[in-house]
Amino acid sequence: MSVNIILKKDILWLWHAIFLLILCCFARSVEARGIEFNTDLLDVKDRANIDLSRFSQAGYIMPGNYTLKLQINDNELPEQSVDWFTTEDNEKESKPCLTAALVNFIGLKPELRPQLTWWHEGQCLNTDSLPGMSQRADLGTNTLYLTIPQIYLEYRAPNWDPPAQWDEGIPGLLFDYYASAQTRHEHEKKTDNTFTGNGTAGANVGPWRLRADWQGRYDNQASNNLNWDWTRFYAWRALPHRHARLGVGEHALFSDIFDSFTYTGLSLRSDDNMLPPNLRGYSPEISGIAKTSARVVISQKGRVIKETRVAAGPFRIQDLNETISGELDVRVEEQDGSVQTFSINTASVPYLTRPGMVRYKLAAGRPSNTQHHMEGEGFVNGEFSWGVSNGWSLYGGTIASEEYQALALGTGRDLMAFGALSLDFTQAFARRLPDPLPDTQKGASWRVSYSKRFDETDSEMTFAGYRYSEQGYMSMQDYLNAHKYGRAYGNGKEMYTAIFSQQLRDWRASFYLNYSHQTWWDKPDNDRFTLTATKYFDAGRLRNVSLSATAWRNKYDGSNDDGIYLSLSLPWGNSGTLNYNGSFNQGNNSHQASYFNTMDERNNYQISGGVAGQETLASGYYTYQGDRARINVNASYQGNSYSALSLSAQGGVTATAQGAALHRTSRPGGTRMLIDTAVKDIPVKSYGADTLSNHFGKAVIADISSYYRNRISIDINALPDNAEASASVIQRTLTEGAIGYGGFKVVTGSKTMAVLRLENGEAPPFGATVKNSQRQEVGIVNDDGSIYLSGIQPGITMRVSWSGKEQCEFKLPESLSGDISQRLLLPCRLL
User: Fold this and answer.
1) Which residues make Cβ contacts (< 8 Å) with residue 804, sequence separation at least 6?
2) Which NCBIfam families does the record match to this protein (predicted)?
3) How buried is residue 740: exposed, middle or buried, by Cβ count under 10 Å (0-12/13-18/19+)?
4) What span, in angstroms and rounded, lies between the C-alpha atoms of 133 and 115?
5) Residues 54-71 pLDDT 10s
6) To pair with 778 at 20 to 30 A between CA atoms, which of 24, 54, 407, 721?
7) pLDDT digits (tens, 9 = 90+) for 716-750
8) In CATH, what number is assigned to the domain containing residue 685?
9) Is residue 577 one of the residues assigned to a domain?
């Protein structure tokens, strides 16, 4: 069977190879830009019935409309509709029409527009107006290749495209869910059956994302068995060229300065996710002076972070990644052979902004709750952070309503070798407070934040903070609670936070400390302390054994919760892990052993057993990553206490005019891609996510990144035997929440030899092409109408083209043997 398949594919390639070889051998040049074929040398019966027009001009493409991928230098862009016209001075020459919309999509710098010239009545770009720009097309790969000097293009970064190439997606509906069913039986009590669910429903209309969050619960033991709520209604859209996000509806205040609260209204904020990865967040600026054209290398502990070339004179490098911290080594290699070296130290804390950049957040509306009721008067909020210079940032903001106002101002400083520091001050005023509170209350709050990485010891204090609030200080949420409950319970006083990590690489060990202390003016203090130590080692033939210990203390309302947690992990087999977990908590000790195994990319499970006090424990779960949903089954038992069994599913459905599909998802309402293969059971994957197209040839890849170039491909090694894909990769850069759309040209069906005949008994000309209903080329007519057809299916109709247009069509029989040795005689009816 496999031999026959291989022979059929070999015969197909042989026919095409022979045909192209004939064209190459018997063509002779007649013009600088064209070729003429000496048909007298072709070994065909009817030399007068030959159509080689599509090959008669080097690179010639017949006028018409084509859907092609764009290849800009090394970057592949999504398919676009491109018209082909004959040139104004040579009817035998054709060129693609790069319209103004396509030029904008390509990402040419706006300042170049005045120097551009156009042809075909001003509709198409004259590529000669940009020196160094060239173009060529390859219909075999459905690609238009454009070579454009980088200086003409907007800023690009690896896997990131400028806003002109962002895709808003297509209109559609979505419904994402997490649903769980559980039955629990407690010792000597009734069985409790519970069903819960939550998720997001939504619609995409142009650039707008309309969303509604929902949750529901059914409990047969509750007095109100069924509860269903729409907890939030909201919408947003991207403002790409402003790198901002506009929102409307119910939101939580998104603030770096003020405490958050929920409200209904409008929001407008800059979105760092829209910036290139190297321009997001805060990163230091590196400046210097080059004596000549120089190579600048920035490294950390020998690892090159960035390498670039600068012209002679002052230079500034501003696009370091925001995650870089610690000491950086800078090496400037001059063209004359001399070298400059220096080091800088950097750290990052919130509120630091890159030099020259401004980040902002604006909001307006009324406070509200999850029942959609307004709970206060209208307010406005605004805040900003401005990168004043390489080391200084200035930030501040305000919340203002008729009865409550708060004003904040602060500064951030990169102290280089000494870390980074920010300080801010907030003054709040509240009036018309309910009894028994005073009618008017005011107070201030101070905050200090610090961050430092110690390269010498491979340790990092990622964040250390202190905040003090006067007794009269009220946040907006405090003010709302005072009006709602008649008192301001939980008025914060002091808060300390410290997070410290230490790596001991030579010992293959690490330590992590997290400590927070919070006090209030009107209730007991709260302390949280966690210390974790982890050690990796080898034990005989076992590699990367992990031993971890965590100690904690939680002090809340005057009571302490102290404990120690131990964990030991041993690799076992090819994909399994043996684990031991022990918990020691004020006499409530437990010991548990478990085995985890990853069966394949879609299936994993864990079984465990142990003791808790005097009772036995047993549990297990199984997870399946399905094409339509993620399924989890979980069972647990504790002696003389309870037994439980649960089943959960997480997924969604996305529906558009181009098709619909069920799919798994973990980020409700997020960005996704609808893939059209036109054929069922085609394997589609993207960055670890994989699925099969459904019965209608549709598949959805969910949880993909926004404002980031996503690569979706067909797994050609897993294609069905009767399917072929002419292209296996597409790329899209989608805005947040978009439903992207892309299609693969997949031909499915068997292959066979056939003979085409017109109604007058003659054959279509040698070189005519055959396309299926999806306009995919499936064969080329050879001598006397013979043709090798691929992708044939019973009863389908195909069309034959020559002289630049479709001329006739034929229908395949309802029953096909698929035997290549038997030629089909197919009448072709003129159109």
Assistant:
1) 53, 62, 63, 64
2) PRK15284.1
3) buried
4) 14
5) 555 555 677 778 878 888
6) 24
7) 888 887 787 767 788 889 999 999 999 887 877 77
8) 2.60.40.2610
9) no
